[in-house]
Specification:
The chain has helices at about 95-100, 105-120, and strands at about 15, 20-25, 40, 55-65, 70-75, 85. With about 120 residues, it is an alpha+beta fold. Bound molecules: zinc ion (2 copies).
């Protein structure tokens, strides 16, 4: 269902800048975060467009359950502090996901994050 010009998905191999591992193409959609350490880089304005020049590191701060039994990783950019969300990929490290979920700091961050989102949503 990718029919909008906003969704020019770029699926490509890359080396993770955070953990240094080689990450191969995902195949079914754009790879938007590292499956090993779950970090991402702030490069998109709209998903997959690579038009953002911030290039800060997106740190996974929480996991959010979304519809249809999918999960979203909640990221905070260490440079501009923007909150981003990406759907988990099939080969994401599940132990890492559980680790983020069970971290009480992330739990509280998740709660304040919703208030934060409300304020910032007009800028997305
Ligand atoms: Zn990584
Ligand atoms: Zn940023």
């Amino acid at each position: 269902m990718i029919d909008s010009a906003k969704f020019t998905m770029i699926d490509e191999d890359f080396t993770c800048l955070v953990c240094g591992r080689e990450v191969s193409k995902l195949g079914y959609t754009a790879r938007d975060h590292c499956p090993y350490c779950l970090h991402s880089i702030h490069v998109d304005i709209n998903p997959g467009d690579r038009l953002c020049d911030c290039h800060g590191i997106l740190k996974p701060i929480g996991i959010e359950k979304s519809r249809k039994d999918t999960y979203k990783i909640v990221f905070e950019c260490d440079k501009c502090k923007m909150i981003k969300k990406n759907i988990t990929a099939v080969d994401d490290d599940f132990d890492k996901i559980l680790e983020i979920m069970s971290n009480p700091i992330n739990y509280w961050a998740g709660l304040t994050f919703f208030l934060y989102i409300e304020k910032r949503s007009i800028f997305w």
